[in-house]
Design goal:
- By secondary structure, the chain is α/β, with parallel strands linked by helices.
- It has one domain: Rossmann fold, CATH 3.40.50.
- The protein is built from nine helices and twelve strands.
- The strands form three sheets. Strands 2-1-3-4-12-11-10-7 form an eight-stranded mixed sheet. Strands 5-9 form a two-stranded antiparallel ribbon. It has a two-stranded antiparallel ribbon with strand order 6-8.
- Helix 2 packs across helix 9.
- It is globular, with a radius of gyration of 18 Å.
């Protein structure tokens, strides 16, 4: 059974899930929550894309950011304390690609999605990752944590979670060319069986900085409700997490199903972790 496809329903799922992500972080990782709350407008720089819209996740998390359009990175005054988000397709002029490489090497953090694998990662960081030339269909796959010790995955998935990850038609599967350098954070066995590669989210160091890349669009536009648990009320997800759902969140999540919120939660919490960890490093 398919869940909500984009639009108002998906927006509400992200809004509710993001509140839960921040509430859980405050309970379980108070220092991370403090760093997240300290993020200022210039700490996150977003390069908008035609297809992905990571800024919608940032809006749901109530995180400030600045927008810099392709061709303007040279004048943006990038510095190592920032997190740079490049949305799919990531088609940047050559001068911008040089600025991205210099930014990461100096200590900056890059977060990119889907076709940016071909347009940014391959030319700027050759020999690390590559597109496997087997574009996906429009599909939803199960994902699982591979690097459980990573601080970026804290609270993203618990033992009984079963989040679904949406693959846009023609998403680019990730081939890891340098396994000694790359850490696979999330994987999907279904993705590997159908399109040859299991990596969903990866990270690697470059100079003093770090790169994150994820297949498909970070703002998930739909999910699949595959089990009786997925079809339960969204409030059951709060009960599973041991968090009380307040009245405002209950109003936002009204009529949503557990599976819809669960998928939004996994992506919202992951980005919250990345952003808070970057802020903690910046402050220290």
């Amino acid at each position: 059974m398919a869940g909500g496809v984009g639009g108002e329903r998906q927006r509400r799922a992200y809004a509710a899930a993001s509140r839960l992500a921040r509430d859980r972080m405050a309970i379980e990782e108070p220092l991370a929550a403090e760093a997240l709350a300290a993020i200022e407008g210039s700490d996150i720089v977003v390069v908008p894309g035609t297809y992905d819209h990571v800024e919608q996740v940032l809006d749901a998390l109530d995180l400030p950011y600045v927008v810099v359009h392709p061709g303007q990175l040279g004048a943006a005054g990038l510095h190592p304390g920032q997190l740079l988000v490049v949305n799919c397709p990531g088609q940047l002029p050559r001068a911008d690609l040089s600025h991205v490489g210099e930014f990461v090497a100096a200590g900056g953090t890059l977060f990119s999605t889907d076709w940016a694998l071909r347009h940014v990662i391959e030319p700027v960081f050759p020999g690390v990752l590559a597109y496997n030339q087997r574009p996906t269909a429009d599909a939803v796959v199960r994902v699982e944590v591979l690097d459980a010790d990573s601080p970026y995955l804290a609270g993203v998935m618990d033992e009984h979670d079963d989040p679904q990850w949406w693959l846009e038609a023609s998403s680019y599967p990730i081939t890891v060319l340098d396994p000694k350098r790359v850490r696979v954070l999330l994987r999907s066995r279904e993705l590997a069986e159908r399109w040859g590669e299991e990596a969903v989210a990866v990270t690697f160091d470059h100079g003093q900085g770090e790169v994150f890349h994820m297949i498909s669009h970070y703002y998930l536009q739909r999910t699949d409700l595959r089990s009786r648990r997925h079809l339960a009320a969204a409030s059951d997800y709060w009960a599973e997490k041991g968090v009380v759902m307040d009245a405002d969140t209950a109003a936002v999540a009204d009529d949503l199903m557990l599976g819809e919120v669960e998928s939004g939660y996994s992506s919202a919490r992951l980005f919250a972790n990345v952003a808070s960890e970057k802020k903690r490093r910046q402050r220290s």
